[in-house]
User: Fold these one by one.
Assistant:
Number 1:
Amino acid sequence: MIESCAKKRMLLGITFLGILTVLVLIIESHWTESRNPGRKRNFPIEQNSTCWEKEEYKVVKDCEPCSAFEIASQSIGVCIHTHFKEVLRCASGETVTRSCDRTAYIDERAFWRFEGFMFLSAAISTLCVIARKKVLNKRMLQRVQRQLANSV
């Protein structure tokens, strides 16, 4: 069925599907943000201190993954829940470790790995299609030459 489609029609269909995908992603992103606008994440904290909720604080160490030892030994209680930790210093001078969401750079790195893999698989698929097309064209040319030789 796809062989009978014209090149313009296929390009139009692919473009339409691409635009539709982007539109769905935008709508879904907006929809999920508007459903939970005031959602507050309650992360576990170390040393049972909530000074960061009541006063100004400074992030000493950004959100980073916990080591395998910290997770396995449960030496830092905040690593049990999300496997990520963040160190804060409150205005009173108290240092608090709290659990946090995944860091953006880890998600970004996973995204680019996925994109690279998809690009590589697309390139390999394209090369396979080109090679197959050459083989089929060669077979067709040989068949035509044989038919012409038999008719003369």
Note: The chain has a mean pLDDT of 85.
Number 2:
Amino acid sequence: MLMIYFTYDGYGRSWVNGNWREAHYERKYHKSWEQRCRFWFCCVASPKRNQITDISRIISDFFMELDVVPSDIAAGFLLLRNFQKLEREEAIRHNPETGITKFLSGVPVRDTTLYITPNDASLLEKAVHYMHFANGAYGWPVYVVGNQCGLAKIMPAICCCCCRPQDSSDIIFDDNFCGCNYTALQKTLKLMDVDIIYVTYHCDIGETPFFVAIDYNYKKIVISIRGTLSMEDILTDLNGENEVLPLNESREDWLCHRGMLHAALYIKEKLADQKLIEKALERDPSRQTDTYDLVVVGHSLGAGTASILGILLKETYPSLECFCFSPPGGLLSLPVVEYTKTFTTSVIVGEDVIPRLGLRQLENLRADLIHVLKESEDPKWKTLSCCLLRCCCCCCRPHQMPNHNIEDYKEQKMNARLAIDHTLDNERVLSLHHPLYPPGRIIHIGKDDPDSDDESYEAIWAGTKDYDEVLISPRMMRDHVPDSVLTALKQVAFKNATR
């Protein structure tokens, strides 16, 4: 019943009858998706709920004229995964033309690709160090999931708000009654010489939790921003339209993700109103004898917000650094990405789907999905059942497009993507949005065979456009989890340190 509610399209008949482009039906379609979104996010009691209208329009534009059912999407994903594998195999076979020697969790490795070497050991150590800060921003849920007996570890340190020290009320804001989130943060950073200046767990649409701390190990002031953990955060993620960065010298081609820009502006305003950076610099003059520079870190939504916040603060703090772990793909336009390469390092693990997600990538995914479903000569039941049997160690495999080779498929795929631009109204074509990419220089950590149980990772410097396509993989969400990122980073850093 839930599946029918979420996927039933009551306006399909209008489209079939040729009346789809009439404004009357289009308004009804947008309205139906707005009602669904308001139902899904009914627990969000925010004065900014009016943004749901904009978000529902983005979703309805994506599904408009996509006449499929859930089983079609499942079959299409299975077919796409097979063809993505075939494309990678073909690229390696044509090495003299492509220059590709192998793929590292979906990212091409060419003759010119640079591997992470022992010379980069200090950078990897810093990345591991600041990943703990990004992890700590999530509070108790991620700590409990990522640590063995995590709940038992934080329970003895939990106390109600009446029993907390008086000075903590000036530091901690909007934590729960027992202070679980702040307790988990302290446990996460307990092995480091850190002094927490300010932490807020206030969460709203375009307003995400963060904390400010002094890192005496690296002599830095750290701003760590939380990733997606609530319905409000999801709405911030979904508000993915392009918006011009509000800099002193505004440039029209410097575009970014609207929802994360609002979150960055919120944090910047908090930093200025409460003079948090100034307080951190003056916290302990006896220990802070050297210059303390600014570092902004975050994971997922926090990484995207951290990158934009770093751009906004760079003019005031020229020595600022930014570490973005698993940042979203639809974040910055190419001119901004080139600018951030001077001070931003991004870390992406495996076949993580989030760095490959943006409005343009979603539109291409939709075109590819429709194309493989149209071209496949196997019935849907056979595609789904054969995949299930292969999971059960059966050699059965569906026959896909027997009349075409992989080169024909790639050409038809590009034609299908281009056709979208001409068949839909310009105001509804997501691919006409300016393409956005992950920020900074990118360290990609992956494996030669992502499907193997071997957890031996390698790391390379990846290109910005290596994440321009959504990869269908069983690990596409697992590789995004903060603990997976930290584990992979630690392994690569240890391997480099022992070389």
Note: Residues 13-20, 392-403, 422-431 have pLDDT under 50 and may be disordered.
Number 3:
Amino acid sequence: MATTAENVGDIQAQIDEIEALSSIYGDDWCVIDEASRIFCIKISDDTDLSKWTICLQVILPHDYPSEAPPIYQLNATWLRGSKRTELSNSLEEIYVQNAGESILYLWIERIREFLLEKSQLNDSETPEPQKVSEEVEVDDGRSWTAESDFPDLRALRLNTEAAHLLSELSGDEELPPVKHGEPITDRRSTFQPHLAPVVTPRQVKMVLDKLYENKKIANATHNIYAYRIYCEDRQTFLQDCEDDGETAAGGRLLHLLQILDVRNVMVVVSRWYGGILLGPDRFKHINNCARHILVQENYIDSVEDGSKAGGRNKKHKNKKAK
């Protein structure tokens, strides 16, 4: 990509903004990948106890701030449904009101205000415990668990050329149809898949918000998801995944979508934990749920084809998003 005078201006604006944020927030500001312009910051409510925290992750597209907004993700186990939508809408409103300007400081302070308001309104309430996956046994006999408030940074490394798709979104974008698959129950744990055709990151967010309107889904122990969006003009994919506390499940689900070579689709698998550890079987159920709903919605021919998708002669039946 040729560097224009405008690009140079954006690059310098980003450098100046990052230096200022690093100076203001110190160790709370974290550089994940400077070359890819990926950063995150832990934001708290600024009270003595600091019960409420959110991790804000951002990717700065090459044409931010002149043309595109930052790509962002909010991570907090308690931030769901209407509250997540409320905060996301306020951040997007800040961008619209300050289009063409550096806005990360405004975003961070708005999130801090949001946390402070929540702390004052719910003084006796505490955030729900961080979700952890089932214990994962390793060779030396130890077990490991993982927190979900702070992301698997590998999943954050989105394709930065495709990331500026967010800047092309309009407020008129429609919610894609969300389909639900048959649940699988094993030892009192239940797994249920959900699927939606998606062609923009905004639609991914809309689908999640819609699912979280359902109290049963919102209260699931884990809502694991992955999506792949094909950017035809750049011949590349915009893809990401989320474990939601079920360690490595999101990455495994994304890998399944990759080997099946499905595109413009998002799959969510809800799990309600029944009190009995399933061990590796839980990953089998998550992937089987995903395969079945992909068959149901005609993204692949059969579950058997999905199981053999690693072969050279795998079939491609990519359903086009409408």
Note: DSSP finds ten helices and twelve strands in the chain.
